[in-house]
Amino acid sequence: MSKPRHVFETYIKATADQIWEALVNPDFTKRYFFQTAINCGWEPQASYTYDLPDGTPAMKGVVLDSVRPQRLVMSFQMLFTPALAAEPPSKITWEITPVGDVCRLTCIHSDLALSPITWAATASGWNVVLQSMKTLIETGEDIGDIPDDERSPFSPHRPALLEWHRTLGIEANNMVHQLLDKPSRSDDETFQMIHVAHAAAHHWRIAGTIENWARAEYMCSRAYAFSGRSEAALVHATRCKAYVDEAQLQDWDLAYAHEALARALACGGDLERAQVERALASAVFVADPEDKALVDADIASGPWFGVA
């Protein structure tokens, strides 16, 4: 699972040198970067700050790599509030790539696993910075204040910690699927799959609904069943079905709850009960044809440990 990060990019009708100048010149940054002027000598390992109009540092870090006009890498720490300043430094990578008559500017904000407040603040902030820079370079005009109508997908109005946990839950889910789909897994990868399934369950428990909890228990059960650990697979399958019943979930959530029970029972050698649960999974009405195809494919795929 990759560390939490943001990736933004925009295409600017300008040369690479012009964009580089906008990144390193304080007269430029204070016009698009929330009125902060960058203060740095730009030699390797040089410290820098982004200073507010009164001279107070708002952000700080160290230059890690600088290749004009292609790449600039800096550590990054926000100082706007004590909570932000208490989080560990993350990393900003700026990449400038000529593409025909324009340049692509990419901003990668990484190493945010231990910085959920910074993660949430910059999810909206970097998008505004890039678009403000683009407007300034192309038109010579400041973009001005952008009111938050709370409709942007980058809106900061969602609670920071919940959004952070939700993102980690999605990343963990994706990794479990990748490991489940591997034709052959090493022992290390099998244990990694189980650990990541539990990590996903942890994040969804904090940021999700009972529907997410049911699906997280399903993933844990599937990971254990695919690794031949029947007892743990049955524990999580039973919890999945309990959440589905409590919330009266139907459609594919109900189908997958039965499928999890069937596979866990089969893994443990109870083939008769497994066959019953598998038939119940197949009989659930799934409204969307694409969802139904996914359910049927999962029910058809192994391992079934001897169930016909």
What is the strand and helix layout of this fold?
Layout: E1 6-12, H1 16-24, H2 26-32, E2 37-40, E3 47-51, E4 57-67, E5 71-78, H3 82-86, E6 90-99, E7 102-110, H4 116-139, H5 160-180, H6 187-207, H7 210-226, H8 230-246, H9 251-267, H10 271-283, H11 289-300
Antiparallel strand pairs: 1-7, 2-3, 3-4, 4-5, 5-6, 6-7
Helix pairs in contact: 1-2, 2-4, 4-5, 5-6, 6-7, 7-8, 7-9, 8-9, 9-10, 9-11
Offer a concise description of the structure:
This protein is α+β, with helices and mostly antiparallel strands and 308 residues long. It is 53% helix and 18% strand.
Please provide a written account of the structure.
The protein is an alpha+beta fold and 308 residues long. The chain has eleven helices and seven strands. The chain has a seven-stranded antiparallel beta sheet with strand order 1-7-6-5-4-3-2. A hairpin with a 6-residue loop joins strand 2 (37-40) and strand 3. Helix 2 crosses helix 4 (116-139). The chain is elongated and about 75 Å long. The two termini are 35 Å apart.
